[in-house]
């Protein structure tokens, strides 16, 4: 017989956090708004350089639970520096990819994950987990790009087109973009936008919110 695969405690703790499911009401749930900065947009070959996350409970951002980590990577792209400014030989403290994932999974315990163009961030995280011999994320996922579209009038949709950037959301909701293209800065913009979206959509339950998203689930 094949031996059952064993996983590290941090993964087991993460999985166990979902044993009782998640709450039905939006106000009762923990949302983790997450962003990654990467070496490029090739999900197969590029790597995560930083992860930023903010926790929302009862429609309030919890600053004390915010985190941002920078990740050691051998793979690097000079072109991506023009976007995020993370230098290969920069002075910022970096940690190993597994340690970064460990921190991220702790924050994601029993949470709904929220991100802008979420499929990209989740795919990059899942690829990183695979490199560590771990399964994919278990969290339910909401995409602020898709939800944002549900709040717009026909005229506004014509203005923005079919692809909604984070800058579009920042413009619409008058969110400062001083830390744009940092993982925590973009997570902050996304979090504020998400709260605005919730106030517009007024979902009756978490299931209602997922129906309105309707694009990407794990």
Automatic annotation (TrEMBL):
The lineage of its organism: Bacteria, Pseudomonadati, Bacteroidota, Flavobacteriia, Flavobacteriales. The keyword Hydrolase applies. It comes from Croceitalea rosinachiae. Gene3D superfamilies: Ribonuclease H-like superfamily/Ribonuclease H (3.30.420.10). InterPro entries: DnaQ, Ribonucl_H, RNaseH-like_sf, RNaseH_sf. This is 3'-5' exonuclease. One of its GO terms (molecular function) is exonuclease activity. Residues 30-203 form the Exonuclease domain. The keyword Hydrolase applies. It comes from the Bacteria. Keywords: Exonuclease, Hydrolase, Nuclease.
């Amino acid at each position: 017989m094949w031996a059952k695969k064993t996983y590290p405690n941090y993964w087991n703790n993460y999985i166990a956090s979902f044993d009782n499911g998640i709450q039905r009401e939006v106000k009762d749930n923990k949302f983790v708004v997450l962003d990654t900065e990467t070496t490029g947009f090739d999900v197969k070959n590029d790597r995560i350089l930083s992860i930023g996350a903010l926790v929302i409970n009862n429609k309030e951002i919890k600053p004390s639970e915010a985190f941002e980590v920078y990740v050691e990577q051998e793979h690097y792209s000079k072109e991506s520096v023009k976007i995020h400014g993370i230098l290969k030989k920069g002075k910022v403290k970096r940690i190993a990819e597994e340690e970064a994932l460990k921190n991220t999974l702790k924050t994601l315990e029993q949470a709904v994950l929220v991100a802008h163009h979420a499929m990209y961030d989740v795919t990059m995280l899942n690829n990183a987990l695979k490199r560590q011999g771990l399964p994919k994320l278990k969290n339910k996922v909401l995409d602020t790009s898709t939800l944002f579209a549900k709040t717009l009038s026909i005229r506004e949709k014509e203005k923005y087109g079919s692809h909604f950037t984070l800058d579009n959301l920042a413009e619409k909701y008058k969110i400062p973009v001083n830390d744009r293209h940092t993982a925590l800065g973009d997570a902050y913009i996304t979090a504020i936008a998400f709260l605005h979206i919730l106030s517009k959509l007024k979902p009756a339950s978490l299931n209602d919110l997922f129906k309105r998203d309707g694009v990407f689930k794990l």
